[in-house]
Design a protein that fits this description.
CATH topology: Rossmann fold
Number of helices: 6
Shape: globular
Structural class: alpha/beta
Number of domains: 1
Radius of gyration: 16 Å
CATH superfamily: NAD(P)-binding Rossmann-like Domain
Largest sheet: 7 strands, parallel
Distance between the termini: 36 Å
Order of helices and strands: EHEHEHEHEHEHE
Strand content: 15-25%
């Protein structure tokens, strides 16, 4: 039997990199999709050091056709996707009086719409036991007005995750967002590695008592 596979959308430093390494250390092969070629190459090397087979591609997930093609290519390569992790969001420092409708929609296309693209592309390679995980944020409930679009993205993606979970649950595929209730840092309870551990735990929660949102308080 082939190893399980995780595809990380929005791969790079921070939580997404920690998620990739965490799952690789647990025996997963890893697909990496990110926008920065240098950071992606470095993460690819780190993940391979854990013994994982890797595929890495530079990708803008808002390019629906390209994202669909790349995710399906990874699914075809391994003939499976067991976990799809979605990490991207757009940070734009503008309050509601500065933010334009076009900018808001552009940010939502990345931070929410990208998940829709990824799930639709990965679905045919997922089976019972498959999981969709998402990096959430306290911005969903306590937005900073100076980054108004981020709160909209995080609230929107949490809502979308619930709909995805309800839709896929009859097939034994579950979705969960992990709401990080703190600011990421290099030390303390909100390091990327600790958040990645929380995402691992959320993906492996008991299906009988499944929750589509898990709050991580550190």
């Amino acid at each position: 039997m082939s190893k399980p596979v995780i595809v990380v959308v929005g791969a790079g430093p921070g939580v997404s990199g920690s998620v990739a390494r965490r799952f690789a250390a647990k025996g997963y092969d890893v697909g990496l999709l990110g926008t920065d070629a240098d950071r992606l190459a470095e993460l690819d090397r780190q993940v391979a050091d854990h013994g994982a087979q890797t595929l890495a591609e530079v990708l803008d997930v808002t390019d629906v056709a390209a994202a669909t093609s790349e995710i399906r290519s990874m699914g075809q390569w391994w003939n499976r996707i067991d976990v799809l992790h979605f990490n991207p969001s757009a940070f734009r420092e503008k309050d509601p009086l500065e933010l334009t409708v076009e900018e808001l929609l552009e940010d939502v296309a990345l931070g929410v719409g990208g998940l829709l693209t990824a799930v639709q592309a990965a679905r045919q390679f997922m089976s019972a036991g498959g999981r969709v995980t998402v990096t959430g944020s306290m911005a969903a409930d306590k937005p900073w007005n100076r980054a108004a679009s981020l709160g909209v993205q995080k609230a929107g993606i949490r809502n979308l995750v619930r709909s995805i979970d309800t839709t896929l649950a009859p097939e034994g595929i579950r979705a969960v967002s992990v709401t990080v209730q703190g600011s990421l840092g290099e030390d303390g309870p909100f390091t990327p590695d600790r958040v990645a551990e929380a995402i691992w735990d959320a993906a492996h929660q008991d299906e009988a008592s499944w929750s589509s949102e898990v709050a991580y308080h550190g």
